[in-house]
Design goal:
By secondary structure, the chain is mainly alpha-helical. About 70% of the residues lie in helices and about 0% in strands. It contains 3 helices and no strands.
């Protein structure tokens, strides 16, 4: 008989990451409306598309981290968990870098881009995401040792006594 459960439970951080993704999605809808609307009011159709592009980039960049951690946590409790976890999270980071460089190269030469609008909508998306992360993690109620499996019997008790 084993002292620990056969299959460990999912990491305690998963519900928090799902909450962060849910609130990021809700904020993305609000930012799309605001960024596109304000961009349209400031610079017409070009401002609308610039605002939508900035918000879209912000949402993609900021959602990739919790998504990659949730995907990596599927290997929780397996032999190579740490290696797989950091491989997936770093792969997500590299994907963000490639997307960012590609977006900059593509958007830099476009005539419809209004630099101020795309910049401010990107910054607004980042600030809102940081606020969501801060609120979600400040409300986190997980013990420091939440993912530890304790033995089910006392090791000091001997069966032959």
């Amino acid at each position: 008989m084993s002292d620990t459960p056969e299959k460990p439970a999912a990491p305690a951080i998963n519900p928090v990451l799902r909450t962060v993704l849910l609130w990021t999605g809700i904020a993305a809808v609000a930012l799309i409306v605001l960024g596109g609307g304000i961009g349209y009011l400031v610079a017409g159709t070009d401002g609308l598309w610039s605002g939508l592009a900035g918000v879209g980039l912000a949402v993609i960049f900021l959602a990739l981290t919790p998504i990659s951690v949730l995907i990596a946590n599927r290997w929780y409790g397996r032999e190579m968990f740490a290696t797989v976890f950091f491989g997936i999270v770093m792969g997500g980071w590299l994907l963000k870098l490639v997307i960012f460089i590609t977006a900059i190269v593509i958007l830099r030469g476009q005539s419809w881009v209004v630099p101020e609008v795309i910049f401010l909508s990107l910054v607004a998306g980042i600030v809102v995401s940081l606020i969501i992360d801060a609120v979600a993690f400040s409300r986190l109620r997980v013990p420091h040792v939440s993912d530890v499996a304790l033995p089910t019997r006392n090791p000091e008790e001997h069966e032959d006594s």
